[in-house]
Amino acid sequence: MYQDAFTKLELEETATLLDIYNPLFDGSNFDALETTIMAQGMSFYEGLRYLDIADYSCVPPIRRYAIDGPDTHIVLDWTNVPIYQLNNEAPITLNEETVTDYVRFFFNHVRGKNGRFLITESVDDIRWRDDPPPVARKTIGEMLLPLIIADQKPDGGFFITATVMFKDSLFQCDIDIDAQGQITLDNEKLLVEDMPVLDDAFGQ
């Protein structure tokens, strides 16, 4: 998703990391013998890893996400607060090669009080409740855009054009990213509404 492939961590490293992260988690205590940690490098945070921490012995599975490094242990909490904090401390590196990775990461882990915007680059990114007819699927597919860098700002920020899902509606919008990684949405244009999609549940 961000850089390189996921790597499954061995039991010894999993136990060491859980000693660090269990006290930081709200309401969860992971047992190393029941926990799978997948780690992945991040193109926009040099030297840090994205951790997907999961206990599949529970139904539904318990999952938490974190950013880890030698002196960095940040738990992602579905707000922009830990991400913006990390952007200043890491620091973040945004360029033409990393900015789209960052945008996907940000929207995958930030939710507002009314839901979240889901970056939607192909019909396979849509969580269909009922499969649409082939003609409708093709029509929607033709509306979807990969993340497109529209412009780079003098201060090092970027403007990106994207298609996003919000609840049951598809929008095209502009994403404004400043040099420190702060994000705002502009020029939202409704493309399709009342789509047969699953509600976005909190948790992943």
The Rg value, from CA coordinates, equals 18 Å
Question: Main sheet?
Answer: 5 strands, antiparallel
Describe the global form. globular
**Lateral strand order in the biggest sheet:** 1-2-3-4-5
Spans where pLDDT lies below 50 across 5 or more residues: none
pLDDT averaged residue by residue: 92
Structural class: alpha+beta
How many separate domains make up the residues? 2
Number of helices: 4
Strand segment tally: 10
- Summarize the amount of helix as a percent range: 10-25%
- How far from one another are the termini? 15 Å
Residues in β-strands, percent: 25-35%
What does this structure look like?
- This protein is of the alpha+beta class and 204 residues long.
- It has two domains: 3-76; 99-192, no CATH class.
- It is built from four helices and ten strands, in the order βαββββααβαββββ.
- It has helices spanning 11-21, 81-89, 99-109, 134-143; strands at residues 3-8, 35-41, 49-55, 62-69, 72-75, 117-119, 148-152, 158-166, 169-177, 183-192.
- The longest helix has 11 residues, at 11-21.
- The radius of gyration is 18 Å and the shape is globular.
- The protein starts with a strand and ends in a 12-residue tail after the last strand.
Labels describing this entry:
5-stranded antiparallel beta sheet; 10 strands; 33% strand; single chain; 204 residues
Briefly characterize the structure:
With 204 residues, this protein is an alpha+beta fold. It has two domains: 3-76; 99-192, no CATH class. It contains four helices and ten strands.
Topology:
Layout: E1 3-8, H1 11-21, E2 35-41, E3 49-55, E4 62-69, E5 72-75, H2 81-89, H3 99-109, E6 117-119, H4 134-143, E7 148-152, E8 158-166, E9 169-177, E10 183-192
Antiparallel strand pairs: 1-2, 2-3, 3-4, 4-5, 6-8, 7-8, 8-9, 9-10
